[in-house]
Amino acid sequence: MREIIVDSFAGGKHPAPQFRTARRVPTGRNHPQPWEHVVSVSGGKDSTALYLLAIERGMPFTAVFADTGHEHPATYEYIAQLAERAGGPPILTVKADFTEAMARKRAFILAKWPAAGVPIDRVERAAALMRPTGIPFLDLVMVKGRFPGAKSRFCTDELKIAPMWFGVQKPVLEAGRSLISWQGVRAEESLVRRQMLRWQRVNLAPFSLPKREREAAWAFRAYTYRPIHSWLLADVFAMHDRHGIAPNPLYARGAERVGCWPCIFAKKDEIRLIAQIDPSAIDRVEEWESIAGGVSKRGAATFFCATDDPLYHDGGTVTAEQFGIRARVEWSKTTRGGVQYDLMARFEAGASCLEVGQCE
Ligand code: SF4
Asked: Which of 49, 99, 218, 319 has an alpha carbon 20 to 30 Å from 181's alpha carbon atom?
């Protein structure tokens, strides 16, 4: 599988990333291919149906998967085999790289934390931990010193939208072509999705770009195309059947969605399911909480935002023991006795990544 590593601009101080440059293409009305079709593939059922539909349509297209480093192994395997099984174009992987952002953060920790009164043993531990792991999700969390949450949802932008933009979309647009970004969004999945348009002029640039740069990206001709917007679930599976492609095996194991495993907005049922069928995912997140806590000035970082927890009170201390992933797994096992809250509603409310179809 071809892979494009995209230098991150997390922290906002990095010089402009080096773009993959595309040959400039003349764009007259009679140019044979003024449009570039880019199909987002996540390994989920909807984006797989989208990929199969693009194959059926018969025009050339580029399929892209944004790798967060936080997927179930079955999803990686599924994506690696999909093109061959379906007889479609190879699926390109884009992946954010935080090496330089981490070097800047390490220098910042060593220079500023002691002056801010952070004990020297914690400064040294944080600086030692601040080394790239090659796992984009974890490296990003270390750079930020915290996990993403509803009010600071940097994961989609930094791990999906930016690599897609710098690695694929921007070079196409800078070459003078119009870009059609295919998104596997279906109306029946939620109210927010129902209101989305099937066809829409969009600005695909990352939200975290400096305002002027992002505004300037409106000059490009980029469109979102949601051809399966009116499809029902049965249509999605019928498309799989027609091509003899089984859906991602995680569905057969009870998952309702695939993607980050788990997502920071995972529902109660999803947390319980992951703990049951893949305890190693919980172990991994617990280890990440420990690493992120080590590079956080507060000394603690939890995967699910502690302030979303009904048991959290303003000004209260956040500890991994009380609000970390293990505590959430225990909560997920409760029925009526547990306090109820719906993180997925937050996911839909901040729908920027849904608009660009990046998170299922
Ligand atoms: S799936 Fe969830 S955790 Fe992953 S990038 Fe999207 S919002 Fe963030």
From this structure: 99
- Residues whose CB is less than 8 angstroms from the CB of residue 127 and which lie 6 or more positions away in sequence, other chains included: 106, 109, 110
CA distance 204 to 214: 9
Q: Atom 8 of ligand 1 has which residue's CA nearest to it?
A: 155
In the predicted model, what is the mean pLDDT of the chain? 87
Pocket of ligand 1 (CB under 6 A): 68, 148, 155-156, 159-160, 259-260, 263-265, 353, 359
Tokens of 203: 């600005």
- Of all atoms in ligand 1, which is nearest to the CA of residue 265? 2
What is the SS3 assignment for 4? strand
Atom of ligand 1 nearest to the CA of 360: 1
Phi-psi region of 134 (alpha: psi -120 to 50; beta: other; left: phi over 0): left
Spacing, Cα 241 to ligand 1 middle (Å)? 28
**What pLDDT, on a 0 to 100 scale, did the predictor assign at position 323?**
84
pLDDT in tens, 282-292: 999 999 999 99
- Supply the DSSP symbol for 172: H
- Return d(Cα 50, Cα 348) in angstroms, integer: 21
Look up residue 272 and give its amino acid.
R
Distance 53 CA to ligand 1 centre (A): 25
Q: Does position 252 have pLDDT exceeding 70, yes or no?
A: yes
Structural domains of the chain in order of their starting residue, each with its CATH number? 3-256+351-355 (3.40.50.620)
The pick from 155, 267, 271, 347 for probing ligand 1's pocket by mutation, whose C-beta has the most ligand atoms within 8 angstroms, reads 155
User: What was the pLDDT predicted at 30?
Assistant: 47
Nearest CA to ligand 1 atom 5: 156
Are 124 and 283 contacting, i.e. CB atoms less than 8 angstroms apart?
A: no
Please report the pLDDT score of residue 319 as a whole number.
Answer: 77
Q: pLDDT for 50-97, tens place per residue?
A: 999 999 999 999 999 999 999 999 999 999 999 999 999 999 999 999
